[in-house]
């Protein structure tokens, strides 16, 4: 184990063994320097640990410094916009334009007693349990795979044996057929052969008689004998002539015709079989979160980008707003049945379209196309904002208020049916999710969950895609929440009409703070929208024609 030396004496080129470590200053101290450190008014309250305790500290603690590497100064502030700590020189060099600065002491104060500590501890334990469960599962899968291999080898060998047995039976059958057929032929040939041999024996005897007759018989005897011999030879000649058409004298060729299926086995059957891997979805119930974010939610100073005066085009009632990809701003004016387009500098550009029915909410789909709900008319219009025309109308048979889209599907809140519906862009209902609440009208989709506002109960509720309640939240600052939007770091922004606030709620630990208030110009804020790519927040008051664009952390 390496030996540590007093940091202060090393600066004087003296190597004196260190006995302790100052956690705050991150320096090694010898006995004398430790005494001096404890006497010094600036460092007397610094926590000091022994060298033995220091060497037991985890690497992630040792690698975390309290000092700025660039300027050799102690960190004393935290920039929420850049998500980093800095020293006083860093403020001047790198954070001149940053407004989201907090004293580092405020950021870290009470961190060890916060709910985040217990949450991280629980998550570490959950992760450990999950790893044990997964490794145990994988071990069982390896054992199962070996058992499956044995079973498959047995099946292959059994199949091979079955095929062999079947071929053996077929071979025996055809060999038996061959023996039977050859036996029949042989029997017939042998029978004819025996008959011919018998007749030849008689002919041989008759020939001998003929010779003796010619030598010893009288003429009369010869005459009578010739007549008998001629009769016999005539009959036998006739018999021989008849034999030519007999089966037994035909030229027989016995051959075997092998079944074509057997001949083509080698050609057509190129494999004994194939190995198929069937996957089953992972179904272990794990405890850990999809993503653990240490999100100690602290008040952030809002950075105003621009103020829009919508009332410059007349009295209005803004129920929906949208930041378009071209950095234009779109507003849904419910009372005048129109949508208004403003440029990024707050200049009114034009009325995109005026409708017959009263619109409620709006969401972006793709290119220049947006979707707008019309509760009383029970329909959705897909509107081309560039060409100022309705591209498609979808009938939904219900009071549709809030609407969201991922570019391929539409999620719509149907308040009079206590449900959300999911449609494709042709208007076909893909599924329906039952979630009760007449006063749930606005929502956002976060990590495949529906997070919605209930303006009557002043609650924020989270449901899964099967309609199961995951959590709900309320506090005294969230009064009549209407608009809702999410940022990229797990925060939910809420426009609260009765408290004239925009409240930021952490989806992970449910901490919250007031981001904007009536001192920032809010007056019954109804709708808001977040452009996640540019980290912009657009919030609009319902009736006074004021809207504001803010830069938010990312």
Give structural notes:
With 554 residues, the protein is of the alpha+beta class. Among the domains are: 7-108, 2-Layer Sandwich (Double Stranded RNA Binding Domain), CATH 3.30.160.60; 303-551, 6 Propeller (Neuraminidase), CATH 2.120.10. The chain is built from ten helices and 30 strands. The strands form eight sheets. Strands 7-30-29-28 form a four-stranded antiparallel beta sheet, with no helix packed on it. Strands 8-9-10-11 form a four-stranded antiparallel beta sheet, with no helix packed on it. Strands 12-13-14-15 form a four-stranded antiparallel beta sheet, with no helix packed on it. A hairpin with a 3-residue loop joins strand 16 (400-405) and strand 17. Helix 7 (115-216) runs antiparallel to helix 8 (219-243).
Per-chain topology:
Blueprint: H1 7-10, E1 20-22, E2 27-29, H2 31-39, E3 48-50, H3 51-54, H4 59-62, E4 77-79, E5 84-86, H5 88-94, E6 101-103, H6 104-108, H7 115-216, H8 219-243, H9 260-263, H10 265-268, E7 303-309, E8 318-323, E9 329-333, E10 338-342, E11 348-354, E12 362-366, E13 369-374, E14 379-384, E15 389-395, E16 400-405, E17 409-414, E18 419-424, E19 429-434, E20 440-446, E21 449-454, E22 459-463, E23 469-473, E24 481-486, E25 491-496, E26 501-506, E27 512-516, E28 525-531, E29 536-541, E30 546-551
Antiparallel strand pairs: 1-2, 1-3, 4-5, 4-6, 7-30, 8-9, 9-10, 10-11, 12-13, 13-14, 14-15, 16-17, 17-18, 18-19, 20-21, 21-22, 22-23, 24-25, 25-26, 26-27, 28-29, 29-30
Helix pairs in contact: 7-8
């Amino acid at each position: 184990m390496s030996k540590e030396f007093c940091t202060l004496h090393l600066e004087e080129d003296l190597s004196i063994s260190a006995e302790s470590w100052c956690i705050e200053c991150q320096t090694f101290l010898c006995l004398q320097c430790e005494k001096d450190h404890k006497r010094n008014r600036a460092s007397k309250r610094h926590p000091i640990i022994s060298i033995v305790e220091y060497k037991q500290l985890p690497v992630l603690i040792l690698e975390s410094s309290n000092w700025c590497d660039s300027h050799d100064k102690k960190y004393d502030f935290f920039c929420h916009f850049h998500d980093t700590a800095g020293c006083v020189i860093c403020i001047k060099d790198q954070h001149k334009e940053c407004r989201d600065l907090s004293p580092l002491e405020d950021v870290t104060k009470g961190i060890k007693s916060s709910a985040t500590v217990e949450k991280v501890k629980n998550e570490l334990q959950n992760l450990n349990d999950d790893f044990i469960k997964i490794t145990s599962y994988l071990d069982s899968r390896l054992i199962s795979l070996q058992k499956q291999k044995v079973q498959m080898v047995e099946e292959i060998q059994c199949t091979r044996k079955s095929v062999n047995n079947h071929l053996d039976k077929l071979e025996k059958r055809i060999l038996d057929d061959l023996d039977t057929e050859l036996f029949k032929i042989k029997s017939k040939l042998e029978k004819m052969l025996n008959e011919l041999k018998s007749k030849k024996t008689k002919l041989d005897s008759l020939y001998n008689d003929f010779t003796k007759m010619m030598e010893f018989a009288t003429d009369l005897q010869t005459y009578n004998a010739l007549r008998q011999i001629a009769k016999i030879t005539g009959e036998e000649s006739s018999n021989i002539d008849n034999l030519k058409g007999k089966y037994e004298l035909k030229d027989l060729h016995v051959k075997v015709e092998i079944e074509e299926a057997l001949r083509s086995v080698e050609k057509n059957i190129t494999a004994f079989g194939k190995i198929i891997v069937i996957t089953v979805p992972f179904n272990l119930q794990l405890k850990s979160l999809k993503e653990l974010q240490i999100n100690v939610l602290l008040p952030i100073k809002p950075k105003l980008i621009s103020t829009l005066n919508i009332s410059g085009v007349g009295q209005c009632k803004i129920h929906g707003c949208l930041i378009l990809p071209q950095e234009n701003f779109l507003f849904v004016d419910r009372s005048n049945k129109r949508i208004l387009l403003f440029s990024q500098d707050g200049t009114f550009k034009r009325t995109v379209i005026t409708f017959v029915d009263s619109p409620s909410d709006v969401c972006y789909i793709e290119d220049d196309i947006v979707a707008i709900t019309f509760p009383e008319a029970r329909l959705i219009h897909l509107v081309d904002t560039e060409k100022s025309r309705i591209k498609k109308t979808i009938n939904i048979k219900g009071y549709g208020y809030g609407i969201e889209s991922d570019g391929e599907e539409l999620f719509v809140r149907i308040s009079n049916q206590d449900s959300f519906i999911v449609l494709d862009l042709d208007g076909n209902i893909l599924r329906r999710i039952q979630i009760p609440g007449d006063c749930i009208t606005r929502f956002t989709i976060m990590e495949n969950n529906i997070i919605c506002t209930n303006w009557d109960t002043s609650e924020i509720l989270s449901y899964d895609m099967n309609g199961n309640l995951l959590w709900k939240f309320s506090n005294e600052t969230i009064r009549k929440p209407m608009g809702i939007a999410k940022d990229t770091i797990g925060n939910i922004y809420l426009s609260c009409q009765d408290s004239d606030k925009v409240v930021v709620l952490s989806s992970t630990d449910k901490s919250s703070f007031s981001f904007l208030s009536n001192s920032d110009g809010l007056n019954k804020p109804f709708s808001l929208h977040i452009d996640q790519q540019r980290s912009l927040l657009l919030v609009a008051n319902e009736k006074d024609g004021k809207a504001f664009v803010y830069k938010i952390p990312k």
